[in-house]
Design a protein that fits this description.
The structure is a homodimer.
Chain A lengths: L5 H10 L3 H9 L3 H8 L4 H9 L3 H10 L2 H10 L2 H10 L2 H10 L2 H7 L5 H11 L6 H4 L5 E2 L6 H11 L8 E5 L5 E6 H6 L6 H4 L7 E2 L4 H10 L4 E5 L5 E6 H19 L14 H28 L1 H6 L2 H4 L1 H24 L8 H29 L10 H32 L9 H24 L1
Parallel strand pairs in A: 1-2, 4-5
Antiparallel strand pairs in A: 2-3, 5-6
Helix pairs in contact in A: 3-5, 4-6, 5-7, 8-10, 15-16, 17-23, 20-22, 20-23, 21-22, 22-23
């Protein structure tokens, strides 16, 4: 989506301090486009450009800037400008920004904000990461139950510029308890004199501040909603989560799952924006865990040292056999983990999954084992210590089959077990499945070889 | 989200043919909830329940049913009922259903539909899978440019029940060329006598029927839109893609990427709903490709048979060394593949990625190599053919470091190369990275061993 060609032009215009041209340049751009162009500039340049705009325009573009750039620009603004910017920003974005500012800076900004804004930011900041409260916005519209549809529309018209959406609005009682929901569509369809209480829905989907943000996102997606109201545990309306935030959440969640499956812990920023040391630590932790677990393969092989000294040909097939098991396990782990993430499966389905995967693993194992048998027949080696070459090939074929069946089951069952124990099933990454299967694969392979060849 | 507890109750009520109770049961449910409850029943039972409802209600619930169930229920309906259902269904869903019906059935249904509906379905069916045309709906609202804001709102009020959304509407000329866009919010904010042409935007985001559906989804997400208009190449408005379809697209796309990375080809249905043979073939193809590629490891080891016959201790560390490289490669492949999918990187960034990953791989490799060196020091084996044990440990440490650096680079560069060549970068699955690294790892390991120990 980036348009890197435009960045140098823009940079030149900024360098020339050509204010008229810059105003012209940004007048017709959607704030998202403007932010995308600005994302390629330095904080100094962006600061200069934003200074030329009105408060509202500036905040609309600022909302869309990358986080590090937001921080760089905020650093260059004086306290009063920053306070004005915070006032105009969208409620969820500004709570995030205030959290990321250095403590002593935010301490100076808070007193400059209106009391309502200050309390709003504090409240949004108070919810734990990953909860619905932490992703909601407090920019929602409410209408009184006893107002007429026409009066309610008139009210929305006045509030429109300050609300995240006016297409959905909510009805609360005197204690701000959520009582009803009415869409602008239903208000428009209703006869003008009809009261809100007569057209509002009282049975509708809601979320709670301490609900997992991901499950709230799924709810919104399932019911095809534009927004979902968020209540505290006493049913007071405290915010809404909108469809655009849900899209962001779903993308983030998918990224986290992909990373976990690949053996990388969740990252907060984009690949190129993550500091080297953060990324190094993240990767090193997982690699080390897997590496130390891999010591088991050395230990396992040590126990069979006599066997492969006697029949060196056995060594030739070690990587082939253990990687066949690992690959099959990666496949089943991926399928089950994704099905769990999508809600297609729950740990209660374990018996069904077990049956399915025993059948699947066996049929895949037989197929691969047969190919392995043929491959071994076509090799020749002197190192079979007198055992016939066809018996050796049979050993390989059988070992491939059994290791594939086991690998497949390990990959399928581990995510279910992790989920049941309350962990993220994606912790059972593909590399972790491979490591686990490597050890069992070696033991299985040599046990079969001992039985047939020795 | 499933509520399996309710299914048996519902099944009993259906078995009792208790029509009053069923009507009561479904009256207050959102169609999405109703469909979720029905998804656990057999097609016969669902058919019976849907027969009790009015045409519109029936279609609203049917839209949300799982595809196999939709087909089962359609099979049980007579032609006239099915034609009525198709007329009421949402435009994108019904085009999908008509495509999935057996040819001779759809041939009987088409003549029963109004000409406009028939043409609409044919048009939506004509777009290739994966394009924006194939996911759009033709249920959009238009307003004339010379109408006043008040008249336009009045028009939307009349059209509301038949349109996917009335919150966004579009202005077309006499040839249906897309000229403008106006949101209901802007219509409401405008003075009632102001003309649509004065309040509409003429510079706004649009997509084209043959655009990749995924890129259209990204566009909608980037601009936080409720819907995006879709034009043919002559700028005639032919449909819209709505925010709820975009969420589905993003989830599907993420599932495809996750599956590919795990070495599974894209699946059309959910894990438990995919026929066994389809899933078997899908998995067997990838496993076989990787298995045959794995023959290279046997061939590579065969070349070093003399070496490990002389120094059997070398064998002990084969799995540990090659899996360290594979794991590191899986990590970098995952990071780069996901960054490409999110648009954070393009193949043009290859030099930057190369520099980053050389540094990253080296620092990870040195750390793991040091741990490997210590581990090897602590082992003891007689099979070193006279070489000193510390030289042996040095061999292991060095081999781990070099293999990790190489594995990391293979994992990072392959997705960029695949993308550059026009393939899906996720084709470089974690198992494929491991297989590739296995071979290079074995060769590297024994080359280092020969240099130091022999």
């Amino acid at each position: 989506m980036r348009n890197p060609l435009l960045a140098p032009d823009l940079r030149e215009i900024v360098a020339d301090r050509d204010e008229a041209c810059l105003r012209e340049f940004f007048r017709d751009h959607h704030p998202a486009d403007a932010a995308e162009l600005l994302d390629d500039l330095e904080a100094d340049e962006v600061f200069f450009v934003l200074q030329l705009m009105s408060g509202r325009e500036r905040a609309a573009i600022f909302d869309y800037l990358d986080e590090p750039l937001q921080e760089g620009v905020a650093e260059r603004m004086d306290d009063h400008d920053l306070a004005a910017l915070v006032t105009y920003m969208s409620h969820d974005e500004r709570a995030g920004l205030m959290t990321r500012l250095p403590q002593e800076r935010s301490d100076r900004i808070y007193p400059l904000l209106a009391r309502a804004e200050r309390e709003d930011i504090r409240r949004l900041q108070s919810y734990a990461e990953g909860t619905t409260g932490a992703v909601m916005t407090s920019d929602y519209a409410t209408v009184p139950a006893d107002e007429t549809a026409a009066a309610a529309i008139e009210r929305l018209r006045h509030e429109a510029p300050d609300r995240e959406t006016i297409y959905y609005c909510y009805v609360v009682d005197d204690n701000r308890r959520l009582k009803g929901f009415v869409s602008l569509k239903n208000l428009i369809l209703a006869p003008p004199y009809r009261r809100v209480s007569e057209v509002m829905k009282t049975d509708f989907v809601r979320a709670y501040v301490d609900d997992d943000a991901e499950s709230t996102a799924k709810k919104l997606a399932e019911y095809d909603l534009l927004a979902i109201p968020v209540c505290d545990r006493d049913d007071h309306l405290v915010g809404i989560v909108t469809h655009d935030d849900v899209i962001d959440l779903i993308v983030e969640e998918a990224t986290e799952d992909v990373h976990r499956l690949g053996g990388v812990g969740p990252l907060e920023h984009a690949y190129l924006e993550t500091p080297f040391v953060t990324l190094w630590l993240n990767r090193a932790v997982w690699l080390s865990v897997l590496f130390v677990a891999g010591f088991l393969t050395t230990w396992a092989l040590k126990n069979f040292e006599d066997d492969f000294e006697r029949i060196p040909a056995l060594v030739l097939f070690i990587p082939l056999i253990i990687s066949a098991g690992g690959n099959c396990g990666s496949q089943s782990a991926t399928l089950i983990t994704r099905a769990l993430a999508l809600g297609e499966l729950t740990p209660k389905d374990w018996l069904r999954v077990l049956g399915h995967e025993i059948l699947m693993g066996t049929s895949l194992g037989l197929a691969l084992g047969f190919v392995g048998f043929l491959r071994a027949l076509l090799t020749s080696s002197d190192g079979t210590a007198g055992a016939s070459w066809s018996m050796f090939a049979l050993t390989i074929g059988l070992a491939v089959s059994v290791v594939v069946v086991c690998g497949n089951l390990v990959g399928a069952m581990m995510p279910l077990i992790l989920k049941r124990l309350g962990f993220d099933p994606a912790l059972m990454s593909n590399p972790a499945v491979s490591s686990l299967v490597d050890v069992t694969g070696i033991v299985t392979y040599f046990a079969i070889a001992q039985a047939i060849l020795l």
